[in-house]
Amino acid sequence: MKKILLTTTALVMTAGVAAADVTFSGSAELTYGNWGTSNANGNTATKETWGATTDLGVSMSGEASGVAYTAGLTIDETVTGAAEDISGAITLSASGLSLSYEKGGELDAGESADDTGDLKIAYAGSGVTLGYVENVDTGANKIDLGYTMGDFTVTYSTNTTDKTSSGAQVNTIGATFKAGDLTVAVSGNDGAIDPATKATWDASVGYVIGASTVTLATDETAKSAISVATSLNDVTLSAKAKEGDNELSVGYTMGDITVSYVYDEGADGDAENDGDDAQTIVSISYDLGGIKITGQANNKEEIEVAAAFTF
User: Fold this and answer.
1) Distance of CA 73 to the CA centre of its chain
2) What does the alpha-carbon distance between residue 235 and residue 222 come to, in Å, rounded to a whole number?
3) Domain map of the chain by residue range?
4) Residue 209 CB: number of other CB atoms within 10 A?
5) Which residues is 134 bridged to in the sheet?
6) Residues 67-117: tens digit of each pLDDT
7) DSSP code of 116?
8) Which residues contact 232 (CB under 8 A, 6 or more apart)?
9) Of the candidates 40, 56, 59, 93, which lies 20 to 30 Å from 173 by C-alpha distance?
10) Of 25, 34, 28, 35, nearest to 53 (Cα)?
11) Is 14 helix (H, G, I), strand (E, B) or coil?
12) 78 backbone dihedrals φ, ψ, rounded to 5°
């Protein structure tokens, strides 16, 4: 009887305690090259050097009384002399409502960089989506609203940093309609962000045919574009034809080896369009499981050979 009472008491004491999961992950990369180092002339890269980075991540999750909670910690250490980065995020969610906070987090508060948001409040339910992101240091914020009814979706977005030359805040609206394999999308804003530009809009029609997708698009510049994306066995292909912005991407996978070629006419030689934003990139990768070896080169005389490790 004493043993039964002790067992019952233990069950009562632990009934409100939620089980939690803690997982660890790690990655490291060793590189050699001069990727993303073209000088102001845009055609001469600096000398090749060695570099390395090591990351450690901790992910924790749990649930209590219908409230799901997560917390994460990331340690990013760069051997090349850059400052170490330690960050952590906390999220609470219940009944479609969530609250997230991460100091200097990778959220978009409407500012020029995508890692300017700290606080995010979101809701999703009954076809309605709502998102509010804020940089608690600068006060910059962004609001996104959406509503879906069947195959029709409308969206609205505004932020405190996109303003017209007169100081009015710019609003962006969009709509998407799907009917089987056909998708029609339109979006636009209600004012020029600076005197050199005008209000912008985009419209597109996409159609899926088997493994292929064909898209027709146009915008306020009246320059129409046609894009095709398809795959055949181990080959992937995407292409876009547009005046001054033709693009082509071809990839081939043979077992653990992948070879790709990317051409982007829009990256027309500006000094900033180096590294992954260069006009022409050729790459090859060999995936060994926990180790992935890659090599790439571009038209800016930049190269990189890397070995990435996952733990």
Assistant:
1) 19
2) 33
3) 95-190
4) 10
5) 119, 141
6) 999 999 988 876 555 556 778 899 999 999 999 998 877 778 877 776 777
7) -
8) 211
9) 93
10) 28
11) helix
12) -110, 125
